[in-house]
Every structure is written in C-alpha cells, then in structure tokens.
Amino acid sequence: MTTDSLRSGPGATGRSSRDGRGGTDGRGSTDGRGSRDGRHSARLPVREHLPARDSATATDADVPVLDVVIPVYNEEKDLRPCVVRLNGHLARTFPYPFRITVADNASTDSTPAVAAALAEELPGVRYARLEEKGRGRALRTVWSASDAPVLAYMDVDLSTDLNALLPLVAPLISGHSDLAIGSRLARSSRVVRGPKREFISRAYNLILRSSLAAGFSDAQCGFKAIRREVAERLLPMVEDSGWFFDTELLVLAERAGLRIHEVPVDWIDDPDSTVHIVRTATEDLKGVWRVGRALAVGALPLDRLARPFGDDPRDRALAGVPRGLARQLVGFCFVGALSTLFYLALYSLFRLGVGPQIANGGALLVSAVANTAANRRLTFGVRGRGGAVRHQAQGLVVFAIGLALTSGSLAALGAASGAPSHGTELAVLITANLAATVLRFLLLRAWVFPERRTTERDDVEAPLAATAALPVRNESEEVR
Fold first, then answer.
1. β-strand pairing of 98-105 with 179-183
2. Which phi and psi (to 5°) does residue 129 adopt?
3. Fewer CB within a 10 Å sphere, N or C end of the chain?
C-alpha cells in the first residue's frame, strides 16, 4: 500500500496515533490493513452507549463521535457541493462532534486541490490522499487511522437522503448494533432509478442470499456505518480493496454473529455515475466465490469477532441446563436427520450390488465421515482445520460402535427370520440407529468435542486460548 497523506482544516480533530486504538503506540504497529499486535485475538468488548457530548461547546481538541468518509476519484465537479451540504446538515442536526474525511483514490484531475481547499476552509473536514485506486482501500486506510468511535461512509453524489444519516448511526452510538447499512430494497424505501440498475441490484442480492446465505437486503448501497472496535477487528479479515469490500465486510460480520441494523432510505440514482457495471459485477462474483470457499473450509477466524457471553440476553444460560446443551441438541438432531437420510440412501444404493452387511458398513463409513465434519462445525462450533484429523479418528471410533449395534441388529434379524424383506431391514436399522444416535451424541460431547471448563469470569472476559496465541497476519497472509 502506498503512503497516504492526511491534511486537516483548522477545526479538524483527527489524530494519527491513538494509544493503541488505531495507530502505533510503541506496543505494536499496523500492517497497512488494520492489523494490530495480536489484540484481534481477544473477544470484542461489550457494546456500550457512547457518552453524550454537546457539539455546541466542542473544542478543536475533542475527539469526534462520528467520522464520515467520502471516497472520491476524479470528482472535481461534485466534491465541493457534497461536502458543503453534508457539513451544513451535520452542523444543524447531529448532536455530537463530527468529522468529514475526503478520501482521494489517486485522482488525476483537480479533485486533490478541491479537497485540500475544503480542509482549509471548513472546520472538521480532513483530506486523505491515496496513490492507488479502490473504494475498499480508501475506507480501510481512513477507518484504520480514525479515532472516532463511529465510522461511516457515503457516496459523493449524495444519492441517499441525508435525513437517514442520524437513524443510521444512532444504533451504533447507543450500543445496540455493530454495523448499520442503508437499504434501497426495504419495503418502505423510496427509490428512483432505471430498470437496468434495479434488476442488477436485486439479482446481486438474490445471489448473495442463495450462495452465502446473506440476511441483509442491500449490500452495495453507498451508505454504511460501523463501530470502531468492530472495524479494528474486522478490517484485517477483508481482502477486497474495491467495490466488493462492502459485501465481504457484511458477510463476515453476519457470519460472526454481529448485529447489523438496516435503515430504509430514499435514494435517487445518479445518471452520471462512473461505475463500470459489467466489470464491477464480474469482480463481485469472483469475490462471492472466494468468500464462500473460505467460509466453507473454515479458513476465517470469525471467533475473534465474538461478543462476551451474556452481552445478549438470549445468550444467558437456562436454569439447570449446561450452557450450550440446548443449542447443541438442536444442531445434532438436524445433522442427525440429514445423516440418517444420507445413510439410508447409500445403504439402498449399495444393497443393489452387495450383501446387507457390506452395504451397511460402506453406508455407515461414508455417512460417519460426513456426520463428524457437520457436527464439528454446526453442532459444536469448531472452526478451522486444527484437530480435524484427530476428530475424524475419534469419530470413526464412534462409528465402529454404531456399526457394532447396527450390524448386530442385522445379524439377529437374519438369524430370526432367515430372509427378511428390504422394508424389515430398514425398520430394524432405523431402530438400531436411534439407539446409536443417543450414544453418539454423548460420546461426541464428552470425548470428541469436550467443552473447556472455565470460570464465569473466563466466559465473560477471556478470549479462547488458542485464538489468543495466533500471530497477526500481514497482507501476504490474508485469506486467498
């Protein structure tokens, strides 16, 4: 990444270092993408309501509560009216100190001069120059260097009605949510744009829902906000530096269980937009494939984004029930139902060419490997590849016990009936599998994936020991 320069106006409140909150502080240094000395390994702190401040009495030395970034590339025409209008709107309506940062993505026209003039003219306006293009790169650079507890960005064309800005950041200021996005696809949104862009937007979000199981409605609206402590932990995991940056950020946040707040917006399409639709769509699809593959193999340390246990009332333990047991039972039953159907289908297939014992053993072996992998990830929440071989080996021992139960049942049936029908065989196998399933859950929970015993203080404050020992990755070690 190239070196960027920050220019601030007389009233700007930006700081290049923040005692461990974003810059170098003698204890660690950034890697150019937001990584900091291993503290990403700890869990996120409990969300808290930011203290109220009086913007009317704010001084130049005050740290802003909100930092709004405007990424631009060759926007000499629209930049000044955008910043002037946004600054006036915030000064009139926003009850906290704020900052506006213009992030110039290697513009080749007079955009740098316009941005520098605005930084000199308007209090609270800052100018950042990057020598490489990329909206994601600009946001990562400015957000990583910002000291504001709430970070946001919006497009320079101001297509989104500014009245949605306070509702966007309010849940982050209050501590209710981790990220917030404007949605043009919400039922109550009012949007003016052509059919081509409408189709592309809805088709893209349909792809995200079907391929990445995304729950948010609008990934690409240029109107988003994030709490700084979340950005510090999440940005090093985001690989894209272009238009897919937004989507990757949201998908990872959602998969990690962070709370995303959606705000319906009024939005008017900019007919002079310079976005290359086909190229952007192609890069987005490549990004969807890359992120989907990384999530499928557990290559992303999403547990670094976990909130402390008990931050959400829904996380509190039920009286008399070990923590996690209820959720594990639900996951195990779901995986078990699918595994049973898979096993029966394999048995019926193998039975066409071999005897019942060989068919049973082959079907159990294949389904056991799939069952252990699914329970490892979905039921017991084990991510990454560490210990996978040992878990599969232990799972095969559990499989052997199930094989003994089911094979013994088939042998007993054969001895009693001589030549039982296929339906009778399936009925006996289902009964034997029910008994094996109960034993399998107990063995998986107590032996294969045992829960680490911790004190209540550990549950609330301590990070996972293995995660805490992970080194901070540099840019070349990012997920590919």
1. unpaired
2. -110, 125
3. C
Per-residue pLDDT of the chain (480 residues), as tens digits, is 443 445 544 434 433 333 333 333 333 333 333 343 444 445 677 777 888 765 555 555 578 999 999 999 999 999 999 999 999 999 999 999 999 999 998 899 999 999 999 999 998 999 999 998 888 999 999 999 999 999 999 999 888 889 999 999 999 999 999 999 999 888 888 888 777 777 877 888 788 887 888 888 888 888 999 999 999 999 999 998 888 898 999 999 988 889 999 999 998 877 665 556 667 777 888 888 888 888 877 787 777 776 654 454 544 544 544 556 777 888 888 888 888 888 888 988 888 888 888 888 888 788 888 888 888 877 887 766 778 888 888 888 887 887 788 788 878 887 887 778 878 888 887 888 788 778 878 888 888 888 654 433 344 333 333 333 334 334 333 333
Euclidean distance between CA atoms 316 and 303, whole angstroms: 18
Residue whose C-alpha is closest to residue 128's, from 285, 9, 224, 236:
9
Q: Are the C-beta atoms of residues 43 and 480 closer than 8 Å to each other? A: no
Q: CA-CA distances (angstroms) from residue 436 to 60, 340, 371, 380, 406? A: 69, 11, 13, 19, 8
Phi, psi of 21 (to 5 degrees): -100, 0
Distances (CA, A) of 272 to 62, 124, 242, 276, 388: 38, 29, 20, 11, 52
Only one residue has tokens 């501590």, namely 175
Tokens standing for 259? 């709370």
| pTM exceeds 0.70 for this model | no
Would you state the structure tokens that stand for residue 385, as one six-digit string?
Answer: 């590849």
Rounded-to-integer distance, Cα 144 and Cα 469, Å: 23
Residues 18, 31: Cα–Cα separation, whole Å: 16
Phi-psi category of residue 34: left, alpha or beta, with phi > 0 → left and psi -120 to 50 → alpha: left
| The pair of three-digit structure tokens given for residue 305, joined into one six-digit string | 């984004």
Rounded-to-integer distance, Cα 265 and Cα 161, Å: 7
Q: In terms of Cα–Cα distance, which of 78, 156, 68, 142 is closest to 110? A: 78
Alpha helices, DSSP H only, in 61-150? Answer: 79-93, 111-121, 135-145
| Tokens (6 digits) for 378 | 């979905």
Type of residue numbered 441: F
Instruction: From 473, 475, 67, select the one nearest 304 (Cα to Cα).
Output: 473
Residue type present at position 39? R
Give me the amino acid identity at 332: F
Q: Tokens 């009850």 appear where? A: 95
